[in-house]
Specification:
Blueprint (H helix, E strand, L loop, with lengths): L2 H12 L18 E2 L2 H11 E2 L7 E10 L5 E9 L4 E8 L15 E2 L15 H17 L22 E2 L4 E10 L5 E10 L6 E3 L5 E2 L6 E7 L3 H15 L2 E7 L1 H9 L6 E4 L3 H8 L7 E12 L10 H6 L5 E4 L5 H16 L3 H8 L1 E4 L13 H7 L5 E5 H10 L4 E4 L7 E8 L5 H11 L1 H9 L3 E2 L5
Parallel strand pairs: 1-5, 12-13, 12-14, 16-17, 16-18
Antiparallel strand pairs: 2-6, 3-4, 4-5, 7-8, 8-9, 9-10, 9-11, 14-20, 15-18, 15-19, 15-20, 15-21
Length: 461
Amino acid sequence: MTIHQLIATFLVMTTGLVLAQAEGELGSKQNPVRAFMPSGEREYLTRLRCPNCEEPKYERLGSFGDGPYGNILDGYQLTCENESNKNVVYMDMYHREYRELAPVPGYTILADLNDNCTTNGSSTQMDIDKAIEPGKQTCISNPASCGITTFDNSIPTTNNCMADYSATGQFHVPCVSVFDQLGGKTIYDVILNQQTGAFTFDLDMDSVKPMSVSADSLTLYAAGSLKAALGDVAVSYGETYKMEVNTKFGPSGLLRQAIEEGENPDVFASANMAHPEKLASNEWGSPVVLFARNKLCALTQPDVEVSTDNLLDVIMDEKIRVGTSTPKADPSGDYAWELFEKADQIKEGSFLTLSEKALQLTGGVDSAKPPEGRNKYGWVMAENQADIFLTYCTNAVLAQKEVEYLKIVAIPEELSVGANYGLLVKNGTSKEAWQLAMYILSSEGQEILREYGFKTTEIEK
């Protein structure tokens, strides 16, 4: 195996290309069936077959809290044989391009709806692992096929990044740059141990760790909706304390995932409490502190006849294109789905209709990026990609400043969804990181947040 292939193996193992399997029976809360959106859930359910090869009836029971992948679960009741055999199956609909091949216990599954039902025709875990393995090996043998670029004669020689080979057979590569889905970069320190009597090496997984950030700077990861506000807070803090603050903004869920995969900011500011609380539960940092609030508004095209009073009727109209951010990747999308749940309590069937028709235009790994310097919500609406876009009120205000003809409509009280923003400092970090967090909570930091439309937690004087 070449050095390039060894590094590719390292990347495969550390950047999430191979996902760990959840524990428990498939379809349980501990191991939910993975799919993408309600249409993917229904596609899976329609491929299931009862023991007598009949298609089971299914009914959505509602949402059931976070599952093992950190996503809200849906519960479905399956019924076979004249309603004498009932089971509840839990599903996670936030796995893009994932199609489950195995059946839940007690059922068989069709690979395709045109297939014939047999009692032993379902895919086993061995079948699934066998299907995954060739792609994994292709990635290792040909890194470029997975989007991993390697270069000849490119061992770095500056900034303490010189690779070295010792007489004991240890190959030390101190600077392996890994770019994430958001364009950020983490530099890893890697050690390879030479096998006896050969010029091949084993990767020492215990040695793989991100290089520490220099002591004269801090790194702040924050939700995209905080970019303008916390960008100004970071500049103000830096000028006050003569400390450089490097910032990275993006969907909170993707930032949390990047941290879980090894990236190491000093401070994380999320557009919800769930993402920092999940990191805190894994002892990345503590405590999680509420530092600002936001809420959803409807950003609309000028020709859409909509008001607070008729908003639900308008977004339910099949002719109206409703835009949202991407659930789980971006809390703004989660809050839109929460609004859909509230709509379902007012008008039955609203959740299914709205979640099916919603256009997830921002916040995802594959979402189109606006031109440099453009507000992404103003750009989406100016490009006429949606008639109504459900986003944070602070985002709507910034979009309207850029595209003046857009309208902002308040969400009715019965559908209103509030967003609580959580702040978390990494365990073991410097006192300057805690100082930055306190600055965000200070009167100076909170005043900047208010200027951008956030509701703050500062005690009034």
